[in-house]
NLP1-9 GAF domain-containing protein (Handroanthus impetiginosus), 452 residues
Amino acid sequence: MGEHHDFLTSRLDGWNEEYSLAEFKEFFNNFDNLSSEEYDRGFIFWTLPKNLKKSSSSNPNRAQFQHLLEEIIKSYAFPSHLLQFWAPKVVGGKRCLTTADQPFALAWNLRKGLCGYRRHCVDYRYFVGELGAKEEEIGLPGRVFRNGHIESSPDLRLYSNTEYPLRDYAAHCGGIGYVALPLFGSSRKQCIGVLELLSTRYIHQPMAFKILKKAFKKTGLSSTHIGFSSDYRVWIPCVQCGYYTGRYLSCMKRTAFRLAGQNIGISHFSDACKFNNLQSRKGIAGIVLSTKKPCLCRNLCDLSISGYPLAHYAKQARLSFCFAICLQSVYSSDEICIVEFFFHPDRREDAYLWSFLHLLFQIMEKKLSSLKVASGVEEVIVEVGIKNNMLASFELDFGQPKMSPYIQQKKHQNAKELTTFCPKAGYDKVYSFSDFLEYLQKPNLCWSLPSN
């Protein structure tokens, strides 16, 4: 999980050069029946099956996939990208994902690197039906297919070779931005394939997903989550994922995001949060979702993408210290939200965290009387970290349920005095659960902790 990532991956000679359409078809000379359709913004390619009846039965979704590409390529103006499908197929008695015989799309400039990656993928398979399959055998598309959740990275070189077996080849071909989306048919209950988007640049998700949303609507296909520093995020249960998976409280969507600072990494992280929903046991907030206990992590950068889907964006934004807490309505156990806080790396000491928690619980007691800590125990926090390359956790006991100015951290440690905070005007105003969520949406809501 703390694996070193090599950013010195060399590029293939001529990866950024362009093919003419004739040169491209010659490059794919093993496909004698390759057909294409040219659009203003790119090309769509597909193979003509030798046996139409056999092809339609073995590949029932191909026409729908091709229609989806047509709708995307009409609007998507990104200068250098590859769109392709990984579809399930039984080979040698094993169920796997393959791009063979599936349509694909390339930007109008036909970059040699992306063309090379596409041809390499045709002969590659990810196994998705094997219970004992290794992580590298399942691979990135297989993980998305199995989990039914989007996976993306601002820079695919942040993957390990185990997480993404084709990482080095994709990087050699000039790949940077990466998005993989599970696709669902009209029943919306079973994943029928994975749409993979690879680009030589960072992929701006709000723009890309806006186009995908329109394309899905026209083709009848769908995907999860498409259809809607002291920094924090607020998560509430995702009805859409409950509809797809039947697990209402296994996934939550972000409803608020406020920043005390801004940079390009934070901006990318914020964008990714909109389309990568919180999953049970995934990331710090995901652990809180499954256990209902407050949780902290002193270094998010240690987590892998399989353990935290937003890991690459957190690394790019240099987010490290994270704390998350699950709040529940005192009137209904079904009304919950998770608030996630990110702190400056210099603020990892326990005294700073305890000071913050003391203030947080004061605010809850005075302003959020309709909310309580979902676990029912305010004085216990779960700390998560990496030990011996494995995710480990242990409990920190405050020892004092009312968060007194002195907190017994651990028996072998000395008690530390908390920083004193001055209450803000109107701090004793009371919010309902719905008012609290509305309050978090205010654009001028931005506060920070004292540096001392």
User: Anything to note?
Assistant: Residues 227-232, 239-250, 399-425, 443-452 have pLDDT under 50 and may be disordered. The first strand starts at residue 34 and ends at 39. The chain has two domains: 21-219, 231-440. The two ends are 33 Å apart (CA to CA).
